[in-house]
Design a protein that fits this description.
Elements lengths: L4 H32 L12 H4 L33 E3 L6 E3 L2 E6 L14
C-alpha cells in the first residue's frame, strides 16, 4: 500500500487523539460499567435519604451537635458495623443497611439513626 505522508500523519494524529481521549471517556463511564457488571451500588452522602439521616463516610464531617453518645456508646465508637440496622456482607467489611435497601454502606460510615447492636 502506497500511502502519502499527509495521509500517514492524519491517521497517526487520529490514533494519538483517541489514545488521549479513551481514558477520560472510560473514567466517566466506569460507574455505569461497574453497576452493569454487578458491582454494589453505595449510598451517596448528601443525597435523598442519606441527607435526611446525615449519612457520612467521614465522621469528621458530622455536625458537632450530632456527634454525641448514643445508647451508652461514645460517638468515636459508633460506626455502621456496630449498628443494629447493619448486616455485614460475606467476605467484605461493608454491608447493607435497613434504611437503604438497594444500596451498600461502608462499615466505617455513620448516620444519626445509629443504634447499638445487641451484644
Amino acid at each position: 500500500m502506497n500511502q502519502s505522508r499527509r495521509e500517514f500523519f492524519k491517521q497517526a494524529l487520529g490514533v494519538a487523539g483517541a489514545a488521549v481521549a479513551a481514558p477520560v471517556i472510560l473514567k466517566s463511564l466506569w460507574p455505569a460499567i461497574a453497576q452493569a457488571q454487578g458491582a454494589p451500588k453505595f449510598v451517596v452522602p448528601g443525597q435523598g435519604m442519606a441527607a435526611s439521616v446525615n449519612y457520612s463516610e467521614n465522621k469528621k464531617s458530622v455536625p458537632k451537635d450530632l456527634a454525641i453518645e448514643r445508647n451508652g456508646v461514645k460517638f468515636a465508637n459508633q460506626t455502621c458495623s456496630g449498628c443494629v440496622l447493619f448486616t455485614k456482607n460475606a467476605g467484605d467489611a461493608n454491608g447493607k443497611c435497613a434504611l437503604f435497601p438497594n444500596e451498600q454502606v461502608k462499615a466505617t460510615s455513620w448516620c444519626k439513626s445509629w443504634s447499638k447492636k445487641p451484644s
